[in-house]
Amino acid sequence: MLHISNSEAAGLALNGPAPKATTLDPGQQEWAKYVYGDGQSALRMGVWECSPGRFTVKRTTTEICQILSGRATLTAADGTTMELSPGSNFVLPVGWEGQWQVHELIRKIFIVHDPAA
Predict the structure, then answer these.
(1) S-S: 30 plus which of 50, 52, 76, 112, CB 3.0-4.6 Å?
(2) pTM for the predicted model, two decimal places
(3) Which of 46, 45, 44, 55 minimizes the C-alpha distance to 15?
(4) What contacts 65, CB < 8 A, 6 or more positions away?
(5) CATH number of 6-113: 3.40.190.10, 3.40.50.300, 1.10.4080.10, 2.60.120.10?
(6) Which of 87, 84, 105 is nearest to 17 (CA)?
(7) Under 8 Å CB-to-CB from 30, ≥6 apart: which residues?
């Protein structure tokens, strides 16, 4: 069993920075740390942070997220948008495609389910 409070996740030291691989704005960076499982586990949980800018996403896993700090806009391939701010909870299912526009440094807790792992 694992428990991590929002305040613990907000203060957790993360690994990085690393260049955001799918960025549309050079210089965008991300930080992350798994708190359950690892990058190859079927089920994993962690904390992620990203600097302002835009990046694309093509989900091959289902991700459940809660925003801890910062702001962003998600835009799906069909043009649907979602504004994210602290306390926002959302799911990006397998097959979701779109773009993140990070307006200010953003931090989230995430849970990923990878049916292929």
Answers:
(1) 50
(2) 0.95
(3) 46
(4) 88, 89, 90, 91, 92, 108, 109, 110, 111
(5) 2.60.120.10
(6) 105
(7) 16, 17, 18, 19, 20, 48, 49, 50, 51
Domain boundaries, the chain: 6-113
CB 55 within 8 A of CB 20: yes
Cα(12)–Cα(34) distance, integer angstroms: 11
And the tokens for 47? 């904390």
- Looking up tokens 């931090």 gives 107
Residues 6+ apart with CB under 8 A from 19: 28, 29, 30
- Which tokens hold the place of 99? 């773009």
The pLDDT mean for the chain works out to 96
Tens of pLDDT, residues 64-102: 999 999 999 999 999 999 999 999 999 999 999 999 999
**What letter does residue 23 receive in the DSSP assignment?**
B
